[in-house]
Amino acid sequence: MATSMNGSKITNWADSKTGAFNRQPSAFRNFISTEPGAEFPPEKGRYHLYVSYACPWAHRTLIVRKLKGLEDFIDFTSVHWHMGEKGWRFPTPDESLPGANVRPDPIHPDFTHLRNIYLSQDPSYDGRFLVPTLYDTKTSRIVSNESSEILRMLYTAFDGLLPAHHASVDLYPQALRSEIDATNEWTYHEINNGVYKSGFATSASAYEEAVTTLFRALDRAEAHLALNHRERRGPYYFGARLTEADVRLYTTVVRFDAVYVQHFKCNLRDIRSGYPHLHRWVRKLYWDEDAFRDTTQFEHIKKHYTQSHPQVNPRGITPLGPVPSLMGKDEEVPAVRAALEAAGK
After folding, report:
1. What pTM was computed for the model?
2. pLDDT for 108-126, tens place per residue?
3. Which of 159, 259, 270, 275 is the Cys-Cys partner for 167 at CB 3.0 to 4.6 Å?
């Protein structure tokens, strides 16, 4: 999520004629690499990750950082949940917010906003001020602000420095790469970005096209997980093995009931009562995997969306529900519980 130097907020990225939301590309696309002479080689403590707990794109980098055991190798700072006219800001020293490392910028004490880092690279920069931002403290340069590419770096770039049990964590296994890539393609366009296409559409036709496409894609994911369950393949998206597909889908699904149903008008169904297999899957990840639960901060998520998008929610009122934001592993809404009891399950 981002704003840009020309003042174009994410809520303004709809086509003026069609009303359809168009996400803009990332500007920094460098890589941490083990190649000889690489501009950005892997080094312990050299790189810093700027994130927002609210942002699903940044969230997935935090998940992978923890899954790969990179906590002592790459430090991070979370911005405040509010994104105002100047974009993401750092909390002030007197503010206390939930989550680790929600703090002023520890590298640039005088910087108040993420934009300051971008403008320090180029005072005339007019692109987006994005999280996640991967920053090289040694050269004072931004390495990347493309989340999908940051993920791929974290998978392997530091393996030569990690203990074996972390180096062996493979979220993009060779045998599944074609299936993961194919799944990522439609998941990104129709679910991850689909909620934004629905919520930021400025015409009824654009909204209806986006939201119906979104729910067809959720139906597709639900059918895939239902088949896994029937054939006892395992609890993850590709069965017994946790992969990138789980990480990329999780950060949207875990936010769905809490914000996307009401804030982005994605209300044909919710996850907890309309998608039993997605509901089981997302709760398994949250409650059983520390990397998912510890990086999910619902206060940041709910307050960011509802108080940072005045075109969507002019009064900035944050709904109290749903309660809870994510249900326990063995909890069900009353209608689902009744249906399961009637079916003898």
Report:
1. 0.93
2. 999 999 999 999 999 999 8
3. 159
